[in-house]
Design goal:
Layout lengths: L1 H23 L2 H7 L6 H27 L1 H29 L4 H28 L2
Helix pairs in contact: 1-3, 1-4, 3-4, 4-5
Length: 130
């Protein structure tokens, strides 16, 4: 359980920091991975998804990190989020033949996140049955 809480604390901190940066400076994202915000609506969308949503995901992780009673719920929520991002990315990447360096790295990171979260969920289940 302790390892899961440490991982959630690290992930939560990273999500909150990254989200805050993207909320206030979305152009850093547009420059880094060639996503264009050609309108105010586009800029707001980047701020909401890469800023606000990531801050929210970080909050879920931190919620699970600070209380052992919340750890499994936070891991479960993050697993669903990770699957919801990883599966479409792989399917759409294959469909559109997008094998850019960015896409491949992100696919690998998201797949690793899913595997890590499943492993942590299994370890917390084992710990809770002892």
């Amino acid at each position: 359980m302790k390892a899961a809480r440490v991982v959630l604390a690290v992930l939560g901190s990273l999500f909150v920091v990254q989200g805050a940066v993207q909320l206030f400076q979305p152009e850093l994202l547009t420059d880094a991975i060639n996503i264009a915000a050609n309108s105010v609506t586009g800029r707001i969308e980047l701020q909401v998804i890469y800023g606000g949503l990531h801050i929210g995901l970080g909050a879920i992780c931190l919620w699970g990190a600070v209380s052992a009673s919340n750890t499994r719920a936070a891991l479960t929520a993050m697993l669903f989020v990770s699957l919801g991002v990883a599966l479409p990315r792989v399917v759409l990447g294959l469909l559109h033949r997008d094998f850019s360096a960015y896409s491949l790295v992100v696919m690998a990171m998201e797949a690793a996140s899913v595997v890590l979260l499943i492993g942590l969920l299994k370890s917390t289940q084992s710990a809770s049955t002892r």
